Amino acid sequence: MGEAVVHGTAVPDEIELGRVRVLVGPDRGRYPNGNSLLVVGERETLLVDPSLPLATPDRELPRVDRVVLSHVHEDHFAGLARFPDRPVHVPSADRLGLVSLEGLLTIYGMPPDVEEAWVPVLQDEFHYRPRPDALGFDDGHEWDLGGVVVRAVHLPGHTRGHSGFLVEPDGVCYLGDIDLTGFGPYYGDAWSSLEDWARSLERCRRIEARWYATFHQKLVVEGRERFLDLLDVYEAVIGRREVALLEHLAEPRTTAEIVAHRFVYRPGVELPWVDYVEERSMTQHLERLRRQGRVREVEPGRFRAT
Ligand SMILES: [Zn+2]
Prior knowledge:
Bound molecules: zinc ion
Number of strands: 16
Helix content: 25-40%
Order of helices and strands: EEEHEEEHEHHHEEEEEHEEHHHEE
């Protein structure tokens, strides 16, 4: 097996891992951009997660036979509109989001005022176009491209359907939004789940590959040891949020006070969905701590650490 071939200077614009080409987005694929994957077989070429840079009208597009999404989120389908006549495959559990705008909004689950601001962003900036023809796939589904096979690995938590892909024989594992960044795991949508994250991170630890690629800044990690180290650091963010919440609950607090404190985003970050994501994320921690008896409701709507 060959070595990784890096194209570009200070920041690569493409990384070749055997038959996989990582199309590196601006700023190493920092949101709203991302790093798409092209898997080139003898018979077919698969494009995974067409990111925003592919949507640029003057961008020359690679030959693509079908498109596969790791999950249905705006930064992962942004370039899909440029492949209207190609089959598109999505995790069955997220398929609703690609079939209609209404379905997509169900995945986010935002309150109406936030949703109102979000819809034009989805349509104009992320080029959302419903694909009622989208084909669903499940865990273990394989695409045999000729000399190279892509296998789906269901890793829910980020969304219900979120999936990674293992490309063999090249030994490339693509992890989508299990992105190993300092932000940590994201579970701020209606269809996100902290419980599923725990199971998926456990499953990730057992994936044997030579290279681990992600959609955002970390790009490509070589070697399982290094990957496991980064995964530990990434997972620790969940624990830190929980410890910080427990400290905050030394005094009785309402959900509104928890949201205002900011555990996921830094104080001062002003995005229309911040309060919603804080509430959705931290109420999952709150519920878990209550089940464990570490937090209780001391009066209606006020919670305190025991
Ligand atoms: Zn996502």
